[in-house]
Amino acid sequence: MSMKKRLAFIIMIAWLLPALACNYPVASTSPQGVSGQELRQTLAASEPESEISPTTVPVIVKTPEPDDFPGLFTATPGNIQDQATPEPGNNDSTAFFDYVAQSGDTLPALAKRFAVEPDQIASAAPLPAEAFITPGQPLRIPDTVDQIQYPSALLPDSEVVDSPAVAGFDIQAFIQNGGGYLSTYREQVDEKTLSGAEIVQRIALDYSISPKILLAFLEYRSHWVYGQPSGPDAINYPIGFRVPGETGLYTELLFTAKQLNIGYYGWRAGTLTTIKFLDQSTARLDPRLNAGTITVQRLFSLFYKRSPWQGALYGTDNFISLYTQMFGDPWAEAARIEPLFPAGLAQPALELPFSVGERWSFSGGPHAAWDTGSPLGALDFSPVTGQAPCVVPNVWVTASAAGVVTRSDHNLVAVDLDGDGSEQTGWVLIYYHVADKERVSPGTRVSTDDHIGHPSCEGGKTTGTHVHIARKYNGEWLPAAGPLPFVLSGWQVVGGTKIYEGSLVKGDKEVVASPVGPQTSIIVRQAH
User: Fold this and answer.
1) Is 289 helix (H, G, I), strand (E, B) or coil?
2) pLDDT tens, 366-411?
């Protein structure tokens, strides 16, 4: 098959796949789900690093040391945690890592990252089987990983997700002060003209990705923030994905956000252990690194062969130097706000998102919280009304907890539970496929059971009226059946073997997810 035909096939598949999957939240103007292999084939044909040069930044960055921020991260440039040697008289020749648990670590994920069994991970304190391990807890893990490379820490987690580190960050003012091409950029998105700042903000909020990393990567790749792009290629494809027919900042940043989430949550789950460079060589990721660092390493591997990749991340004029010049020392900021998941974190009491006594179907078990790369953090509920599919019913989606509505647009409602009006801090609930008709206004303070709007087919790709609900904490998407199980009106989510499968369990009762609404999927919320 010729390269031209192969690329056409890739794009066709990228458009077709989301149409086969119902209830999938996605920006309506962009193709879905370009797979890693499909993306790599597209990138391999374009060799972006030879066309767009990185920004040169004459700045020296101080390397953070472990003693500066105890328990914050476990690897630093040129000085990662030393491997422990066996004690004298011990005949066991196995080497060990002395590892300090990081925010978001779980026993199953660590076992995958270190290529060991969970029971081989030892600690003086008990280790939970599924829940988050307390940040800072010392662990001893057998060293079974060969040829670990690139152990240097790059960015803390809070600089990758839309976390408290960017609460109050003024995207518009920052871009205008930069004075570059981005400050005057305009693009049609969903039949509306958006500025460069509005595009960055929309992608950051929808995907829960830090606008800082989006801006820094855009500047590194094409000089849009402080300068001018060099030629039409850097204007049409400012990041360098070069998907045929998909030009402009919005699509390029959308693809970037997806790839950032693939790296971040792949590391969180333990399923990402290697990266492949543009020249098809691979590297085993250091299991001691943090999710933010791994995310950056993987993102750059999509665009560069190994040698340019090393220069881009660890050379003299590297991406982290640029990032620090733009936004200051990221590790100092992380020391102020991390860990993102503090010890003892528990989900607040949440109710099912509909009124007491109504019959709804649990139509979708755990699936992507928000598009490709996000964890299986969302649930779907469909009202049982007897009406035709996609008719907007008179029943209401209700607030699962009290809070303030931070967003109400594009069929999405975001409710901030701590009430400070920031999606970057604390618990946030995301409701999707909420009809335009009678949807709650932004800024509204809601109590539990207040009306949010009507379930619908509006927004994304869906085949039936429903509401999609997901959770975030400090900017991180949470798996529905993970270390902090999703619990609604006392019903706990149990995951299935495939996406959209699963059940709700309460005592000896079980409701099984199904898109076709059998009796076993029906749930009626009871009064307390």
Assistant:
1) coil
2) 999 999 999 999 999 999 999 999 999 999 999 999 999 999 999 9
Burial of 305 (C-beta count, 10 Å sphere; 0-12/13-18/19+): middle
Compute the residue count for the chain: 528
AA identity, residue 509: K
Helical residues (DSSP H) of 281-424, grouped into ranges: 291-301, 306-314, 319-327, 330-337
- pLDDT tens for residues 295-354? 999 999 999 999 999 999 999 999 999 999 999 999 999 999 999 999 999 999 999 999
| Backbone phi and psi for residue 408, each to the nearest 5 degrees, phi listed first | -150, 85
pLDDT tens sequence across 204-250: 999 999 999 999 999 999 999 999 999 999 999 999 999 999 999 99
Q: How far apart are CA 129 and CA 334, in angstroms?
A: 28
Going from N- to C-terminal start, the domains of the chain cover 50-60+152-337, 359-524
Question: Looking at domain 359-524, which CATH architecture does it have?
Answer: Distorted Sandwich (2.70)
Which of 128, 224, 141, 234 lies closest to 182, judged by CA?
A: 224
Give dist(CA 339, CA 517) in Å, integer: 41
In what helix (H) or strand (E) does residue 491 lie, and over which residues does it extend?
strand 491-495
Q: What is the pTM of this model?
A: 0.85
**Beta strand 467-473 with 427-432: parallel, antiparallel or unpaired?**
antiparallel
Model confidence at 93, in pLDDT bands (50, 70, 90)?
Answer: low
